[in-house]
Amino acid sequence: MAVNTIIWDLGGVLIDWNPRYLFNESYFETEEKREYFFKHICSNDWNEEQDAGRSIVEATQELVKKFPEWEKAIRDYYGRWTEMLKGPITESVDIFRRLKELGNYKMYALTNWQANLFDIALVRYDFLHWFDGRVVSGEEKTRKPFPEFYQRLLDRYQVDPAKALFIDDNLRNVIAAEELGISSIHFKNSVLLKQDLSAMNLL
Fold first, then answer.
1. What's the whole-number average pLDDT of the chain?
2. How far is CA 88 from the centre of its chain?
3. Long-range contacts, 169-172 (Cβ 8 Å, 24+)
4. Cα(26)–Cα(17) distance, rounded to whole angstroms?
5. 146: burial class by Cβ within 10 Å (0-12, 13-18, 19+)?
6. Could you read off the pLDDT of 39-57 as tens digits, one per residue?
7. 5-16+88-199 domain in CATH 3.40.50.300?
8. Residue 109 half-sphere exposure, CB side, CA atoms within 13 Å?
9. Mean pLDDT, residues 132-141 taken together
10. Total-model pTM
């Protein structure tokens, strides 16, 4: 079947977000300390709890209580969160614009993002308003790769998974989409994305 819907991940595909922009080589005394922080303190698993709806205030206070010696870095994680937002991935946004201008596809965003922090992105980046709809994990209280999160988008916007294409930089999320019958592209960079879309005769 021909694709009539394209579902986009945001962070890492259209928006360059990375905690290491804030916690760079000069933030901690050593690289070992920085890696310990990401692995054991403000870990990806911990951040995903907030993506799924947990309060960033609650998450911060509990972590400070548990690791008081890391208090400054823990508070900076959300207190200086905007410094992790480098900006749009321009080449990907250009691809998004071209697809939108073709008028052949419905465009949706499916993103793991804490609800209040997503509002900041909505203020900063106009292209986030180009979508025909979006499903944000922090608002839904669930996230990728859980199948019910994908299903909410499919149900809410009457999307036929057999006619949809999903784009995400996280292979875990791509596999989950494909298990629901949604064809997917594992995003690595904008050049390869353009090649993949062209090979599928979508661009």
1. 97
2. 12
3. 169/9, 169/11, 169/12, 169/13, 170/9, 170/12, 170/144, 170/145, 172/144, 172/145
4. 19
5. middle
6. 999 999 999 999 999 999 9
7. no
8. 23
9. 97
10. 0.94
pLDDT over 70 percentage in the chain: 100
The structure tokens listed for 65 are: 């209580």
Tokens at 17, concatenated: 């977000």
- Distance from C-alpha of 82 to C-alpha of 33, rounded to nearest angstrom: 22
Determine contact, residues 53/115, Cβ cutoff 8 Å: yes
* Closest CA relative to residue 58, chosen from 99, 17, 114: 114
Torsion 125-126-132-138 (CA) sign? positive
Backbone angles phi, psi at 161, to 5 degrees: -60, -30
**Chain centre to alpha carbon of residue 1:** 27
- Amino acid (1-letter code) at residue 113: W
Q: Residues 137-146: pLDDT tens digits?
A: 999 999 999 9
Rounded Cα distance, 191 and 95, in Å: 10
Report d(CA 170, CA 86) in Å as an integer. 19
Beta strands at 15-17 and 85-88: parallel, antiparallel or unpaired? antiparallel
CA 164 to chain centre: 18
Task: Decide: 165 and 3 in contact? Cβ < 8 Å.
Answer: yes
How many CB atoms sit inside 10 A of residue 54's CB? 17
Map residue 56 onto helix, strand or coil: helix
